[in-house]
Amino acid sequence: MSTYNKLTPKLIEELRTIVGAGSVLVEDEKIEAYSHDETNAEEYGHMPDAVVLPQSAEQVSKVVKLANRELIPITPRGAGSGLSGGAIPEHGGIVISLEKMNRLLELDKANMVAVVEAGMVTNDLANAVQDEGLFFAGYPMSLQTCVIGGNIAENAGGGKAVKYGVTGRYVLGLEVVTPEGEIVELGGKLTKDVTGYDLKSVIVGSEGTLGIVTKAIIKLIGYPAARADLLVLFKTPKEAIDLVPVILSRGITPVSIEFMDRSCVITTCKYLNESLPYENAGAMLLIELDGTNPDQIEEDLIETGKLCESSGALNVYVAEDKNNMERIWNVRRNIAEAFKVYSPIQSLEDIVVPISHIPDMIPHLETLGKKYNVTIPCYGHAGDGNLHATLVKNPDSSMEEWHKNEKACLTELYAITASFGGKISGEHGIGIKRRGFLKDILAPGELHLMQALKKAWDPNNIMNPGKIFV
Ligand SMILES: Cc1cc2nc3c(=O)[nH]c(=O)nc-3n(C[C@H](O)[C@H](O)[C@H](O)COP(=O)(O)OP(=O)(O)OC[C@H]3O[C@@H](n4cnc5c(N)ncnc54)[C@H](O)[C@@H]3O)c2cc1C
């Protein structure tokens, strides 16, 4: 356990000299917003001593050098949309928010890359490149709020991972400020590069514990203008999931194959006053196809529809116009919010299992729900095995019972996940929320290598301490 020093008035003055007086926040009302992310603020929130808003990698470097010299913890921050507590300054100290470093520095069409500052809102990048007929495919569903640096630090996934993969696939190069304050360039505008260790891939998904990303070289692809969505109803979750390999083995790779169990569809339709035809369905799949050739999408759509029907689907609905696509995606996007109306206390989970084991997980969720007096709606990315099986507190139970049951239920849930070859986070990260479980899921050798890496990069343990590891 490291011990840290407090930020003194003299050091705050030094920070002001580095980034400018207006870019150092110390007043409670200004720094409160940086004390939490999208996890439960009451449970995980913690105030920083100061928030700095640098405008260049050189300023980030100077702030980090100061913190390393004085043993003051640093928490890098993007938009604070994280779901594992990664951007929370648990030990106080300095939050470095990249919000002022939000520019698209270069759109290099000849090399199909964008060079961006880490604080650029993901959706702004997506829109800027779309205007040029290009596509950044590696983004999460929170793209309107989150920023590129946060996506890289979490190796964010999202609804498009089946076809396009996750953020890391699109990171060709990074500028990073190390925990000792050096500015390093990793990778570059290169499609192939085996010149030594692939250090940029070590930074991807490192949750801000190994350095601060200040700039990224992002790979772009052609914009897939043609699109079609299918909403497919099944009697059972097993029938729904069994369809996934059937489609993929036909050479059709949907952008996404999203799964919702019956309770998700009913609760969310009620919340949105929506009327999807779910009456007899025990599960639903939302399948999205896209491409650059409309005729090919039409063919894939017909073939996918036939495969659904021959796999026992109760109904197959096709949404080819934007309005209907939006209606069904709106249901998928609002599941978490809908359950908050039922009970605002939740633990949003992110387990990932090999796709074939999704149906094996479903009965366990029902059993765990009954055993621990919680509701566990199940939805997520069926096409990549990532399930947001969320523990929702029963409104009649006490907070004391909830806290006791939450921990016991998660311990059992994670053990079951591991027994099917799964892991405890597919895209939201470990952060504070899941760090206590890491030793149960990783083999000691793997955990030891991760800790050794952290020690080598950050000998004073000032860079986002307490995240990932206990
Ligand atoms: C409604 C909603 C939907 C979501 N959907 C998805 C989804 O589909 N897929 C998914 O993967 N996630 C999803 N998320 C979670 C979250 O949006 C992602 O993890 C996102 O990538 C976090 O980005 P951020 O900018 O908000 O990062 P923050 O929350 O600010 O930070 C996240 C982590 O990254 C670190 N970090 C931030 N910036 C940097 C930097 N420049 N250098 C180094 N470390 C840094 C922080 O220290 C922290 O550990 C969702 C969240 C919400 C609220």
What does this entry show, briefly?
With 470 residues, the protein is α+β, with helices and mostly antiparallel strands. The chain is 37% helix and 19% strand.
Which key terms come to mind for this protein?
21 strands; 470 residues; alpha+beta; binds flavin-adenine dinucleotide; 7-stranded antiparallel sheet
Describe, in plain words, how this protein is organized in 3D.
With about 475 residues, the chain is an alpha+beta fold. Helix content is about 35%, strand content about 20%. It has 17 helices and 21 strands. The strands form five sheets. A seven-stranded antiparallel beta sheet has the order 15-12-14-13-19-20-17. Strands 5-6-10-8-9 form a five-stranded antiparallel beta sheet. A four-stranded mixed beta sheet has the order 1-2-4-3. The chain is globular. The site of flavin-adenine dinucleotide has 36 residues, from β3, α6 and β10.
Write the layout of secondary structure elements.
Elements lengths: L8 H11 L4 E2 L2 H4 L9 H4 L5 E3 L4 H14 L3 E4 L16 E4 L6 E5 L4 E5 L4 H9 L3 E2 L12 H7 L6 H4 L6 E7 L5 E5 L11 H5 L8 E8 L1 E2 L3 E9 L2 H13 L6 E6 H11 L10 E9 L2 H17 L4 E5 L2 H12 L1 H8 L3 E2 L3 E2 L5 H14 L2 E2 L3 E3 L4 E2 L3 E3 L5 H21 L18 H4 L2 H14 L13
Parallel strand pairs: 2-4, 3-4
Antiparallel strand pairs: 1-2, 5-6, 6-10, 7-11, 8-9, 8-10, 12-14, 12-15, 13-14, 13-19, 16-21, 17-20, 18-21, 19-20
Distance between the termini: 9 Å
The share of residues in helices is 25-40%
The profile of the biggest β sheet is: 7 strands, antiparallel
Query: How would the global form be characterised?
Result: globular
Class computed from helices, strands and strand pairing: alpha+beta
Number of extended strands: 21
